[in-house]
C-alpha cells in the first residue's frame, strides 16, 4: 500500500500548481512548494512561491479508496484514505471541528448525520431480560412472562 492524502486547494492555487506541473518553463519562484504543520498536527501552512496559505488536517466522514491502473483495464487498490488536507485563503472560514462533515462530493453533504445510523437507545434491563429469555429457550425452556395462545 502507498501512503496517500487528499489535498483540497482553492481554485486559483490549484490552477497555479497544475501550470507548475505541466509547464517545464515555469519561473523558479513558483517551484517552491512546502507544507509545515504546527505542534498540534492539525493546523499548518501551505507555501507556494512567496504566498502562504493556512491549512488544516481534517478527518473524512467515511473511508475513501484509491485505485490506479497500468493498462486502463485492471484497477489496483492502492490506499484507504481517511483524512484530507484543506488549504484555505485568508477570507475562508476556519473549520472548528476535527471532522469535515461534508465528504468529498456533493451527495456526501452532511453525510454522517444523513447516511449513517445512530446507535439505538437501549434500556440495559430490557437487554438483560431478553438475554435471560434466549438462554432459557436454548436450554429447552420458555421465556418468562410470556403467554402462549394455541388456536385451532
From TrEMBL:
Domain of life: Eukaryota
Protein name stated in the entry: TAFII55 protein conserved region domain-containing protein
Pfam families associated with the record: TAFII55_N
GO molecular function: RNA polymerase II general transcription initiation factor activity
Keyword Transcription: yes
GO biological process, any: RNA polymerase II preinitiation complex assembly
Segments forming domain TAFII55 protein conserved region: 1-145
Gene source species: Salvia splendens (Scarlet sage)
Classification via InterPro entries: TAF7, TAFII55_prot_cons_reg
Primary location recorded for the protein, binned into one broad class: nucleus
SMART domains: TAFII55_N
Signal sequence region: none
Cellular component terms (Gene Ontology): transcription factor TFIID complex
Keyword list, A-Z: Nucleus, Transcription, Transcription regulation
Places the protein is found: Nucleus
Family from the record: Belongs to the TAF7 family.
Coiled coil: none
Amino acid at each position: 500500500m502507498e501512503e496517500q492524502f487528499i489535498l483540497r486547494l482553492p481554485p486559483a492555487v490549484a490552477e497555479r500548481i497544475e501550470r507548475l506541473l505541466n509547464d517545464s518553463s515555469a519561473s523558479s519562484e513558483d517551484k517552491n512548494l512546502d507544507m509545515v504543520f504546527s505542534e498540534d498536527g492539525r493546523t499548518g501552512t501551505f507555501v507556494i512561491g512567496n504566498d502562504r496559505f493556512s491549512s488544516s488536517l481534517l478527518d473524512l466522514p467515511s473511508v475513501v479508496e484509491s485505485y490506479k491502473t497500468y493498462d486502463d483495464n485492471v484497477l489496483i487498490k492502492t490506499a484507504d484514505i481517511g483524512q484530507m488536507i484543506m488549504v484555505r485563503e485568508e477570507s475562508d472560514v476556519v473549520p472548528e471541528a476535527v471532522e469535515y462533515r461534508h465528504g468529498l462530493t456533493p451527495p456526501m453533504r452532511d453525510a454522517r448525520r444523513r447516511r449513517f445510523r445512530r446507535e439505538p437507545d437501549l434500556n440495559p434491563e430490557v437487554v438483560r431480560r431478553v438475554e435471560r429469555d434466549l438462554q432459557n429457550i436454548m436450554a429447552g425452556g420458555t421465556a418468562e412472562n410470556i403467554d402462549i395462545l394455541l388456536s385451532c
